[in-house]
Amino acid sequence: MRWILPLLLATSAMSAEPPRVRHTINEGWRYAPGPVERVEEPAFDDSAWEGVHLPHTWNAIDAFDKTSSYRRGVGWYRKRLQLDPAVEGRRLFLHFEAANQVADVYVNGRHAGQHIGGYTAFAFDITDLVTFERPNLIAVRVDNAHDPDIPPLNADFTFFGGIYRDVWLIATAPVHITVTDHASPGVFISTPGLTAAGGTVRIRGTVTNSGARPARVRVLHRILDAAGAEVSTAGSNVTVRPRSSAAFDHLTRRIDGPQLWSPENPHVYRVRTEVYDGAALIDVVENPLGFRWFSVDPARGLTLNGRPLKLYGTNRHQDSPGLGNALPDDLHRRDVRLVKENGFNFLRLAHYPQDPAVLAEADRLGLVIWEEIPIVNLISTSEAFADNSERMLVEMIRQHYNHPSILFWGYMNEVLLTKPRPVPERYYEIVPELTRRLEARARAEDPTRLTVMALSRDEILEDHGIGNIPHVLGLNLYFGWYYETLASLGPFLDRIHRERPDRPLMVSEYGAGTDERVHTTEGRAFDFTSEYGQQFHVASFPQLEERPFILGTAVWNQFDFASAGRQDTKHALNQKGLFFHDRTPKDTVFYYQSALLRGPVLYIAREWGQRAGSRDEDRRQPLWVYTNQPEVELFVNGVSAGSRLVENRTARWEVELTNGPNSVRAQAGRYEDRVTILYADRTGGDFFAVNAGAHYGHTDQAHVHWERDREYVPGSWGHRGGKASRTHHRIFGSGDDPLYQASREGMDAYQFDVPDGVYEVLLGFAEGKRDAQPGQRVFSVSINGQTVIRDLDLTGAHGRYTAIRRSVTAEAHNGGGIRIEFTASAGDASIASIMVRRAL
Question: So which residues are the catalytic ones?
C-alpha cells in the first residue's frame, strides 16, 4: 500500500491535520463475477466472495487458456470503508487510476458516477454519500465486454477486466484545488519562451469552493529544484463564489540558467501549489516540472533544447505473467528502468495511457514518451464513439500534462488496418472527420506538444489524407516479417520521405517474433526462430540509423505481451519483445546495448544453448557475439577459434562442438564473456528426435532437442518424399506447439539406419488443415512391415489442431534399421514428430 500523507488520529486538532489527505484503499476488497442483482446495497451478503487486494484483474489466468475465450463481461467489487473522524467536514473523493472498461461506482447503495474507458483515471465526490457512524459500503461494477461505442474495438492485445490500478481516498478542505477535472491534478504547468539562458513558468488551474459562502484565498506556487531548494514563486488572491470554481493563471519571474531536462540530464523540478485561507494552509498539490523545449524538422529530425536528438526506443504493453495488467507500481517502474538500462531514450506507451508510476519513472530516468489513446485498428461511426474518443484524449492530456517526459500525444494506431464488414456508408469520410476533431482538441488542450498517429505500410499508401493531419506521422513497418524482404525497409522509407517531404516521420513499430525453444541455421520470416528474430534487428536497425529524416524509432515490443487472439508458437502472446514475458532478456537486447550504450558490451548469444546433431557435419555450429568493441577472439573448450573484426556490432564464427557441455569464451581486450553450450552428438545411431516437416529444431519441456527435418541419407536418417506443411494455430493437448505446428505430408517413409536391436518409436501427429473434415485424411503406419496404426483419421477421432502421440516397440534386424512407412486410404498421410530410441 502507498501512503502519501497518513490519516491522523481522531483526537488530532484540525489545525494540525495535513491540508490534503491522500492514501490508497487497495486492501480488503471482495470480488465476484457478474451479473449479480442488488450487489450495490449494503445489506447484500458477500461473505462467500473471493477476497482480493487491488490492483486486480479477473483475466490473469483465463486470458491464456487454449480451450476457451477469456471472460469479457461484468465483475463486481465491494469494500467496507470505515472513515477516520479526523476527516469529517472535509470533501471526500474516490480516485481510480483505471478500471477496464466501464465502471459504475456506488457508495452505500447510491450511484456516485460512471466512467467509460479502461485506461484513464476518474474521480467522484462522495462527500454527501458517506457516513462516519459505521463502515461505508463501496461497490464497483466493472464491465470489459465489447461495446461498439467504446475504443478499443479490436486490437492485438488482451483487454483485461477489473480494477487493475490503485484506488485512492482523497480528503480536502471545502476550498481546494479541483479534484474532478477529468481526474487531473487540477494544475497545469508550462514554460513559455524558454531558452538555455532561462525562462518563466506558467501555472494554470482551478480552485473549487464547495461551501455555501464566498471564499477569498491566496494561491501560491513554489518552484523547487531536485534538491528541494526554492528557486521561484508566483501566485495571487483568488475569489471563489459558493459552490463554484475559479481559474487562476500565474507566471513566475524569469528563472536564470535552469537545469534542462533531457535523456542525458533528466532534472525534474517540483511545483508545490499551496492554497491559504488567511494564514492557514488549506490545500497542497505537487506536480513535476521539466525545463525543456523541442521541435521537429522533416529533413533533420528532432531537436531537444537546441541540440539534435535521435530517438531510439521501444513500445511497451503493461501486462506481466500471473498478473495480467494488474501490476504493482514497483513492477511498472522496473519495466521503465529496463528500457533505460538497455540504452534506449524513447518509449512509446502502446496503445493506451499507462500507470502514473510509468510517467513518473520516465521523468526521473529521462525517457522521451509518446502516449496515446486506444483507438486501434478501426472505428465505429457512431457519435458516441467519437464523443468517448475525444473525452479519453482530454483525460489523458489533462491527467499527464505536467510530465516533462511526454513530447507526443497520439490518438490513432493503424485505424484503417481492419475493415469493418460491411463497410458503413461514408466510412472513409468519417475517419478523417474524427481525425481532424481529435487533432483540433489535442492542439487546443496542449499547444506545447506534438500530435502523432501511427499507420501501417499499406495504410500509408492509401490513408485517405489522415496521415497529413497530425504534426508527426508514425510508420509501423514489418519488412522481412509480414512482407517483402529485410533490405526493403530503407528504400520504402526513402520513398515515403520523397512523397511527403514536409511530413516529420518516425518508425513507431518494427519487430519479429521469437521463441527461445525454436532454432535453425536457415531462418525465415515468420518462423519464430531466435536466429531469424536476431537477423531481423541486425538488418533493420542500421537502415534506420542512417536516415537523418527519421526522427525516432521504436522496436515492437520491449516485452512479449498478452494477446488473446494470437496463435503463434506460444498461445495468446505477441512474441516480438526484446524481453520474454517474464522480463528475461533475449539475445537481441545485447545487439541494441552494443549499439546504444557508451560502456563496454560483450555478449555471446546464448538462447540456442542446447543443440543436437545426428550427422557428422552437424558438429559445425554457428556462434556469434554482440559487442561495441572493435575486435573479438573466441575460444571453444580452451582453443582459439580465431579473432574477428566486428561489423554492425556482431562477430560470427563456425566452430566444432563436442558431445556434452562446451565452454565458450569471448575476449575483447580486458573484457570477456563466458557461456556453456550443450551439444548432444547423436551420430551413435541409437537415439533420434525429429521435428517432422520443420526447417527448425525445437527444445521441448523435457529439454529434449528435436532436430529439423531432413531428406534421407544412407547411414543416417530422413524422409523419403512428401512436402512440409505448417499451421500457426494453437495446439491442444501439448505445451510444445512448435513440435506439432509443422508436419510432413504425403511421404512414403522415414528411414532410420540404426544398429540392430529393440527400439521405442514415439510418433506424434496433429491435423493442421483449417478446413479438414472427418474422413478426408485417413492413413495407416507400419514399422518394418508390421502395421502399428491402422486407418488413423486425425480429424474424425481427435479433431483439428490436437497433439496425438503413439508409442510402439519395434526391432531392427539384419542391418535394416527402422523403416516407418505410411499408406493413405484418403488424402495424404501426415506426421509431426518422430522419436526413435533404443529400449532399455
Answer: 414
